[in-house]
Structure formats: C-alpha cells, structure tokens
Design brief:
Elements: E1 2-12, E2 15-20, E3 32-34, E4 40-48, E5 61-65, E6 73-76
Antiparallel strand pairs: 1-2, 1-6, 2-5, 3-4, 3-6, 4-5
Length: about 80
C-alpha cells in the first residue's frame, strides 16, 4: 500500500485528471484507488508516467479517475 500527494486536478467531462507526486509504476488502467476518506475510485487511464518526457517529469504521473475527485491524497494497493 502506498499513499501519494495530489499536485493538481482538472475536470474532464464527468471524470477527473489527477497529477500525482510519484513515478506511477504501480498504476494501470482499471485499478481501484482510495481517497483520504477511504472512498474508492477506478483509474480509467494512465496518461503520463514520470520520466517519459524530460527530467522535470520524473516524479509526476497523470491519471484519469472516474467521477469527481477532490482529495489531496491517493492510496494505491489498499483493500
């Protein structure tokens, strides 16, 4: 189980693009994540995994989460 800081969010229709402070290796389409209140969300898509474009992106990952998301933390791997 790992918890990451949310750096930014942006509404994408009814879903939310979320920029995380992490490399993102543990994210894949369809996994479940939790917010600070233990509410579960589905990761629809992993957009950019850290380090793919330049050195400033090494520790940032962008994912698309189903629904409206406003939390400042994301937990991966919790059941």
């Amino acid at each position: 189980m790992a918890t990451y800081n949310v750096l930014d969010t942006m509404a994408m229709g009814k879903d939310t693009a979320v920029v995380l402070e992490c490399r993102g290796n543990e994210f894949s389409n369809g996994i479940m994540i939790k917010d600070e209140n233990n509410q579960e969300y589905t990761v629809l898509s992993v957009g950019l995994v850290g380090g793919r474009h330049d050195k400033t992106s090494y520790d940032k990952t962008t994912i698309l989460i189903e629904g409206s998301f406003t939390s400042k933390k994301i937990t991966v791997g919790a059941r």
